[in-house]
Write a structure and sequence with these properties.
The protein is mostly beta strands. The chain has strands spanning about 1-5, 10, 20-25, 30-40, 45-50, 55-60, 65-70, 75-80, 90-100, 110, 115-120. It has no helices and 11 strands. Strands 2, 4, 5, 6, 9, 10 and 11 form a 7-stranded mixed β-sheet that branches. It has a 4-stranded antiparallel β-sheet with strand order 1-3-8-7, with no helix packed on it. A hairpin with a 7-residue loop joins strand 9 (about 90-100) and strand 10.
Length: about 120
């Protein structure tokens, strides 16, 4: 099994910053991609940012220039630095990872964290 544990959510004022962390643990050979998604009340879950091999990253247009995704391969951990937060960033943020679960690197397991709530409000 593979588990993702998120931390770092909370209440912040507009214009403030938060840093989310997500650590992968369990039985796997490596982690391919990692990402952050969010789901606001009454809305569908959407991709916020993703990162592959620590180099190639992708961002939703709504967070470009404000959020930064990074990864520590040694710790199997992904971070999301969120700056200039807006009320519309309020959502439950979920970590997602594609874990390699076979020695030939042909089998992947998609794993999700339990979610962490980010509330941006004055």
């Amino acid at each position: 099994q593979v588990q993702l544990v998120e931390s770092g959510g909370g209440l912040v004022q507009p214009g403030g910053s938060l840093r989310l962390s997500c650590a992968a643990s369990g039985s796997f050979f490596s982690i391919n991609s990692m990402g952050w998604y969010r789901q606001a009340p009454g809305k569908q879950r959407e991709l916020v940012a993703s990162i592959i091999s620590g180099v190639n990253s992708n961002y939703a247009d709504s967070v470009k220039g404000r959020f930064t995704i990074s990864r520590d391969h040694a710790k199997n951990t992904v971070y999301l630095q969120m700056n200039s937060l807006k009320p519309e960033d309020t959502a439950v943020y979920y970590c997602q990872a594609m874990a390699v679960v076979s020695a030939d690197r042909k089998r992947y397991l998609e794993v999700w964290g339990q979610g962490t709530l980010v509330t941006v409000s004055s």
